[in-house]
Amino acid sequence: MKRIEKIYQYITKITEAFDLENLKDKGGFSAAEISENLNILRNNVSMELNGLLRMDKIIKIKSRPVLYIDKKCVERILDKKLEATSIEVKEIDELFSKNNNGNSENSPFDKLIGSKTSLKNQIEQAKAAILYPPNGLHTLIVGQTGVGKTLFASMMYNQARYVNKLNEDSPFIVFNCADYYNNPQLLISHLFGHTKGAYTGADGDKAGIVEKANGGILFLDEIHRLPPEGQEMLFYFMDTGKFNRLGETERNRDSCVLIIGATTEDPNSSLLKTFIRRIPIIITIPSFEDRTVKDKIDLIKFLFSNEAHRVNKTIKIEDEVVKALIGSTSYGNVGQVKSNIQLICAKGFLNSMNDKDYIEIDFKSLPTDIKNGLFYLTGKRKEMEEISNYLDNQLIITADGYNELSDTDSYDLPFNLYKIIEDKAAILKEGGADKEYINNFITTDINVHIKSFYNRVKNNENDRNKILKIVDEDILKFSEEVMDMIEKKVDKKLTYRFLYALSLHLSSFLNRLKTKKTLKYTSIDGIIDDKREEFNIALEIKQMLEKRFNIVVPEIEVTYLTLLLSSIQEEKNNEHVAIIVATHGSSTATSMVDVAKKLLGSSNIEALDMPLEVNPTEILERLIEKAKEIDRGKGVLLLVDMGSLANFGTVISEKTGIKVRTVDMVSTPMVLEAIRKANILDMDIEGIYYSIKDFRGYGNREVAETDTDTKKYKAIITICSTGEGTAEKLKDIVENIVANKENNTIEVIPIGIRTLSESIKNIEKRYKIIASVGVLDPKIEVPFISIESLIGGDGEAILSNIVNNKNSFVEEKEENVVSKKICEDSLNQFLTYLNPSKVTSVLFDFISVLEKKVNIKFNNSLRIRLMVHVGCALERMVIRDGLVYKDDKNKLDKKIVNSINEANKLFRSSINVELSEDEICYISEMLK
Fold first, then answer.
1. Same domain as 363, residue 310
2. What is the dihedral of CA 343, 345, 351, 352, to 10 degrees?
3. How much is the average pLDDT of 741-756?
4. If exposure means fewest CB atoms within 10 Å of the residue's CB, which of 41, 689, 787, 827 is most exposed?
């Protein structure tokens, strides 16, 4: 016998002979009493009792201690059926005064948080719809993803049974029209059934859900996905109660069903007018943002109580955590709050397993995207103050405060997360893993479980019209065709977020082609090395683009599309450039960011509103704090409207050490473009800055060039201590990078530190400086590239990008100029028998082959070390004085050794020299 059955049997056996007097005297059974008599741990007894409560087998009496009594016993003594489920009362006497009057305070709707506040009018509408004779009024529930439309429909069903409009066993059938939206025939078949042979694969007669829901309620979620013919069949059924199965010609079947539909769309634009006229009651559920502060806090308490019940532990929560949860809810409403709470409770449970009998959740333990919610709320002082009025410093949630509302919640995890954590922790501990390793491993696992399950919450498919306000309809339609092709290729349903990103990207690309502006790309070499499937799909998109729009698509665009497609296959966790939108006014910045988050769901963007009465010094301090909080090491892009805000970037950089770039005249399209390039294309801050500083939207408007600086010749300055020596050498390198790119329109000018300011002023009289390279940042409003970055990092790519972005059409030049130049100069000093110029070219080919073989993209620093070392090794081979490897060759990575051997064949065929086995071992060590 299972433990839960044993406990229930204990209660029923004792109460089977109870009368009214016994019931009042006894009151019920406590968890402690059952634990002692059955020799079961009290925590386990409490957990099973709550399970029996959810199963509607017992009644909970919230006295001290909490007591439980058999529901059937109470019904037998009262001689009536108790209609409500999961009954909880404060005292046993309440059970004797309960009645089934529809106006009773014990209505199922009273369990809903906000029943007396933000949902009061909606509940009155629902009650009227249920009570309307003879069978109620068909109803449409409208609201964003995650507001609780399914739960509200379930409460309408409970209310109908509560007031005896439906029988206790009347069906409540839930059907999501989106599951079959791309197959109208199959969707209609599910609704109304089909006859044998009605379509290919219809092997027999089958009843639809309209028949199965006879005598009850049919809840159609995402009803806007019904095709027009499906809506017509449904409204005929709503008018007459008659329908026919697919394949039948006569509507001679009957069913009595109350229809409740739900949609995230505007009904007037997504449903037939004739269909809307059949639905007299439209109920709009408010978003989490539009709920009262008390409702928000009560919802959070309720969701925490669910987790406390599941894990059977008390949960202690800092008040700052509650504020952060409220502030971080940007797209999924209550559904998102629920997933966030499950995530932080799971992490708290992991940390408490060994030494605590409660879960403690503090602000510092929160994930960054939830933490940011607290800083979002700082701009809403009134709400912050109101929240503080409802909260103590710590919120304590006990395990016995649970009250399940419905068993139809689609946001409930389909697995016991806490059981998974316990089991995996036990396995890892037995395997000898330490606490830190166990925590890191399971924390990652928690994220995978929860994020994979809740990804659907983020698929905010409402309002196709939103994207049409930004891009042309023909581009959106084309993007939808591309999306359909991709879905078939990867066998995966894509989200509207991907459609938004693709539409914006193609709109921007096509607009640049149409206006004959420079195609501005950043350096993303090597991106297709391990993304062959995405690359092949990108080639198909290229062909579709060229055929539809009669254009020539450059090869680099295929690489960008490959990068965009790779976001389908993996959850991207790399950090991106952070973005702060700051504008004058009480809500301008917030509105822009809200639109951007709803479209692209970014978590690395923040808004800061600057009311005109607020002191600029205070705004600067808030910007500094936001920059510190949001920066992930890649810099902060500050998008502002005008005035003092445009000058804050330099001050923020000086006070925080964070690289800040500022672009003024911000607009919503500019914010979208910045997020797209930061998140999806993963561009660096300089690339984003130069690509959007002249951005004017996704439309076809051409912007007149007004910058008088564009009439000047352009210059790149190279800086060293004297203006000679290193600066001249840098000049040679930089000239090699920009050579043949603008036909002498870019001058490279070496200057020294001693006369830095004066030299720059003189240069600016004749030239527009576009970049500086050298040993010292001159602190001017152009990108600075250090010698270290130019030689060992991504400086060459940044410099090439700056040149490419300066409104000129460029021929792609051989890459890695820096490494080639330095390598040749170095080998000039070391080689006697081999020609440094010829060897450098062969060495470069050797490195390219080696990179492909080991599937690693070398940075400039490693590339230079390898080429100089291998060049000298080749010289040793010529004079027969090769190095001897004395360590154990068996310890070397065989894959790397084999890869070097393959690349070594290049020397044999080109200069008739090859590396010895010992020299190859030394190179292998360098790569290890």
1. yes
2. -160
3. 72
4. 41
Q: Please answer whether residues 136 and 129 qualify as being in contact, where contact means their C-beta atoms are separated by less than 8 angstroms.
A: yes
User: Is residue 443 located within the same domain as residue 311?
Assistant: yes
On whether the CB atoms of residues 853 and 902 are closer than 8 A, the answer is yes
Domain boundary among 508, 536, 569: 569
For residue 235, what pLDDT band results from cuts at 50, 70 and 90? confident
Query: Shortest CA distance to 660 belongs to which of 600, 719, 604, 580?
Result: 580
Residue 535 sits in the same domain as residue 600: no
Do residue 668 and residue 559 come from a single domain? no
For residues 35-63, average pLDDT: 86
3-state secondary structure of 816: coil
* Cα gap 477→471, rounded to integer Å: 10
Look at 23-27, 156-160, 827-831 and tell me which has the smallest mean pLDDT.
Answer: 827-831
DSSP state of 289: G
- What lies within 8 Å, CB to CB, of 204 at 6+ separation is 196
Q: Quick one: 300 and 356 in the same domain?
A: yes
Which CA distances in Å does 704 have to 708, 768, 805? 12, 19, 17
Residue 110, in any domain of the structure: no
104 in a domain, yes or no? no
Count of beta carbons in the 10 Å neighbourhood of residue 381: 9
When pLDDT is cut at 50, 70 and 90, the band that residue 429 belongs to is confident
Span 446-472, pLDDT tens digits: 665 555 444 443 444 344 555 665 667
Residue 640: closest CA among 583, 721, 584: 583
**Dihedral in degrees, nearest 10, Cα atoms 402, 408, 412, 415:** 100
- Cβ contact 522:683 at 8 Å: yes
pLDDT value, residue 458 = 40
Domain assignment of residue 697, yes or no: no
Q: Which of 514, 423, 411 is nearest to 456 (CA)?
A: 411
Q: pLDDT tens digit string along 512-544?
A: 676 665 444 444 445 455 667 888 888 899 899
**CB neighbour class for 192 (10 Å; exposed up to 12, middle 13-18, buried from 19):** buried
Enter the tokens of residue 487. 């879905």
Residue 218 pLDDT class (50, 70, 90 cuts): very high
Distances 390 to 330, 397, 713 between C-alpha atoms, Å: 22, 15, 64
Q: Which is it for strands 172-176 and 216-221: parallel, antiparallel or unpaired?
A: parallel
User: What are the distances in angstroms from CA 90 to CA 54, 64, 116, 685?
Assistant: 17, 10, 20, 60
* Bridge partner residues of 243 (DSSP): 253
Domain that holds residue 613: 578-692
For tokens 């059977």, the residue is 312
700 has pLDDT over 60:
no
Secondary structure letter of residue 213 according to DSSP? T
Query: What is the C-alpha separation between 207 and 244, in angstroms, rounded?
Result: 10
Say if 700 falls within a structural domain.
Answer: no
Query: Residue 212: what are its φ and ψ, rounded to 5°?
Result: -65, -25
Of the listed ranges 635-639, 737-741, 758-762, the one predicted with least confidence? 737-741
- Across the chain, what does the average pLDDT equal? 78
Upper half-sphere CA count for residue 102 (Cβ side, 13 Å): 16
Shared-domain flag, residues 428 and 304: yes
The pLDDT assigned to 142 comes to 93
User: Are 563 and 505 part of one and the same domain?
Assistant: yes
The type of residue at 369 is D
Domain tally, the chain:
7
Average pLDDT over residues 716-744: 66
| Joined tokens for residue 596 | 């951007």
Q: Do residues 298 and 281 both lie within one domain?
A: no
Query: What is the C-alpha separation between 328 and 901, in angstroms, rounded?
Result: 54
Phi, psi of 249 (to 5 degrees): -100, -25
R_g of the chain computed on alpha carbons:
34
Which residue among 286, 304, 333 closes a domain? 286
Report pLDDT digits (tens) over 82-134: 766 678 887 777 776 554 443 444 688 888 888 888 999 999 999 999 988 88
Residue type (1 letter), 90: K
